[in-house]
Design brief:
The protein has 219 residues and is mainly alpha-helical. The protein contains eight helices and two strands, in the order βααβαααααα. 75% of the residues lie in helices and 5% in strands. InterPro entries: ChloroindolylP_hydrolase (IPR018770).
Length: 219
């Protein structure tokens, strides 16, 4: 994913309109009026650009993990995440929307990590083969049930079951993301342990209780 800013066309239209209006009331074929029209047009464009700056969009780029099979997995996974985002936009329920946002945010970070290090594909196999497809399937079923508009017991019961399962799936997404950074967390702790050992060897040591007091500002 990369961020692309799309400029608004409104400032350009207003700038062009300035030339048209100026031509209706002044002899724009004369050099002095051409210069004045150009200055006014530029000023209109600059001011309009402030009020109509355009919009920023996320553009999905082809994955580049260095492994073609992993690239396909990432592309398929991101397509499934797009489906979840579409479901989020279509479903008005705030609780469901909150769970979907948790899924899409965690899922996007998982695929970003996988793209950086394709060798970790095995670590997300269950996420790819079960969690994500199941979430996509359940959301499609939920939207189909929602479209019926029925308040029948069976339909409402099925929708509640899906709603409850989404909390579990969102948690599974987040735990999968967290597990990807397990090794990093261990490495960080190892570095800290080594640092503390070296500091202690140099006679520099802070008592853990004293350190806690200093961090909380208590004496």
């Amino acid at each position: 994913m990369k961020t692309v800013k799309i400029k608004s066309a409104i400032p350009l239209y207003l700038s062009a309109l300035t030339w048209i209006l100026f031509g209706l009331f002044a002899p724009i074929y004369e050099l002095i009026y051409i210069v004045i029209a150009a200055c006014v047009s530029l000023a209109v464009y600059m001011v309009a650009s402030v009020f109509f700056p355009g919009r920023t969009v996320e553009v999905e780029t082809a994955p580049d993990s260095g492994d073609e099979q992993v690239n396909r997995q990432i592309a398929e996974g991101r397509a499934a995440l797009r489906s979840l985002r579409e479901a989020d936009e279509a479903i008005a329920d705030e609780a469901v929307s909150a769970r979907l946002k948790r899924m899409t945010e965690a899922g996007a970070k998982i695929f970003d990590a996988l793209e950086k290090e394709a060798a970790r594909a095995a670590e997300v196999r269950r996420f790819m083969n079960y969690y994500l497809p199941t979430a996509d399937k359940l959301l499609k079923q939920y939207r189909d049930l929602l479209k019926t508009g029925s308040q029948g017991e069976n339909i409402q019961g099925a929708m509640r079951s899906i709603e409850n399962s989404l909390e579990l799936i969102a948690t599974a997404f987040e735990k999968q993301l967290d597990s990807l950074y397990r090794h990093e967390a261990m490495d960080i702790q190892t570095d800290i342990d080594v640092l503390e050992t070296m500091l202690a060897a140099d006679g520099i040591r802070v008592d853990s209780k004293q350190k806690d007091k200093e961090e909380t500002g208590n004496v």
